[in-house]
Amino acid sequence: MAVTGYRGEWLSVPLDPAVAGAAAIRHEPDGLVLVEDGIVVARGPYEVLAPTLARDMAVTRLPGLLVPGFVDAHVHYPQIDRIAAHGEQLLEWLTRHIFPAEAAFADRGHADAVAAFFLDELLRHGTTSALAFATVHAASVDALFEAALARNMRIVSGKVLMDQGPDTLRDDVASGRTDTEALIARWRGRGRLGYAVSPRFALTSSDAQLRDAGNILADHPNVLLHTHLAENDGELAAVAARFRHAADYLDVYDRFGLVGSRSVFAHGIHLGTRELARMTACGSGIAFCPSSNLFLGSGLFDLERVAGHGVRVGLGSDVGAGTSLSLLATMGEAYKVGQMRGASLDPFRALHLATAGGAALLGLADRIGALEPGQEADFVQLDAAATPLLARRTAGLPLAERLFALQVLSDDRTVRSTWVAGRLAHDRDRPRTPT
Ligand code: GUN
Ligand code: ZN
Q: What pLDDT, on a 0 to 100 scale, did the predictor assign at position 365?
């Protein structure tokens, strides 16, 4: 297939700047990325690569700032219609707002419609990959994967295991296993999809189901484990009351074989030193979800402490508890949480968390997140003049300040275009008319 070139200001942050310093940042103010069959085959300054190009090669100029497609390390697609639900902390919010919304996914037609809307919204916000919760219904995963396959997006998901959930939303150990095995057999390895064994959290599964989830994980070396951990005070109290013999919350999962290098835990706000050391030793990761943590009053994630222990961290929107699908806006919320903790998050580090950091959490660091040669060509064209205020605030600013303004002031308008494996998937100025 033909090679296509994309010329513009390219920025990626393959490594954590808090560890690697300036070497973490890759920036070409006038750069060229060459793409063949959806894969980046070369990247460098335009003046260096231009003389090597075939005379008739197509080069597209993309004004603005070009960054890797965002990786949402934790989001719930069935909750998109319950974003901004008033008045509760986690456990009551689940009961009052979320479980009724998820029960509607027993209807496959509903799941198809929401999955299509959700993925198109991700693309409008520059997100090309996500680790997403579905619902307890196997067909909710079929709906999401079918829609993701049609858009060639990198989506990792799985049927929620919750045999202790409400009556309207409950499986059992046997059906949980059968459905999970069938979904893995049906979907793993197709397109750019991946599977995650997904017990909702410790409180909604029996011991037997948590044990079975550990067995499924052990049987399938290529799937992830995706669940919630140490998020909110009410949850912590209920977990401590039920699992009296566990050393702490992480130990609950550990006893069932759920803590390992393929485990992604959402939140991890309230963790002790033992838990952080154990996560580091096992290579587990945390999805930091700042807008959700503020919205539900869950607490202030301590990035310095967690990353200082060597725990891997990515960034999650956690919609519907999160308040925006924009990972740029989520980077802005992460900055504010950092300020409350006395640490001002560097914008390049924030971009790393939202791209390569999340990719590493999903076990996809070799494929996505940094636009290195050999990686898939998922990228986003950002417009620092998307609104009159942004244009005024960013005019003439150097890169770090421009990126920070984008981080604090962004919404979907900032994303001028989104490219999935080298193909235009969203164009802000030429929106597709819904069919
Ligand atoms: N813990 C268990 N389920 C959920 C959920 O749907 N959202 C959040 N934020 N936390 C959870
Ligand atoms: Zn969540």
A: 98
pTM of full prediction above 0.90: yes
Residue 16 domain-assigned (yes or no): yes
Expressed in angstroms and rounded, the spacing between residue 427 Cα and the centre of ligand 2 is 29
- The ligand 1 atom at the shortest distance from the C-alpha of residue 322 is 9
For residue 292 and ligand 1, the question of a CB distance below 6 A is answered with yes
Note whether 342 and 209 are same-domain residues: yes
Q: Please give the Cα distance from 130 to 318 (Å, whole number).
A: 11
Q: Are 284 and 318 in the same domain? A: yes
Q: How far apart are CA 178 and CA 167, in angstroms?
A: 20
- Per-residue pLDDT, 243: 98
236 lines ligand 1 (CB under 6 A): no
Same domain, 203 and 254: yes
CB 335 within 8 A of CB 324: no
Q: Confirm or reject: Cβ of 97 under 6 Å from ligand 1.
A: no
CATH number at 44 reads 2.30.40.10
Q: Among 141, 142, 136, 279, which Cα is nearest to 209's?
A: 136
φ, ψ (nearest 5 deg) of residue 389: -65, -45
100 has pLDDT over 80: yes
Residue 393 Cα to ligand 1 middle (Å): 37
74 lines ligand 1 (CB under 6 A): no
CA 142 / ligand 2 centre spacing (Å): 20
Q: Is the Cβ atom of 201 under 6 angstroms away from ligand 1?
A: yes
Compute the distance between CA of residue 21 and CA of residue 95 in angstroms, rounded to an integer: 45
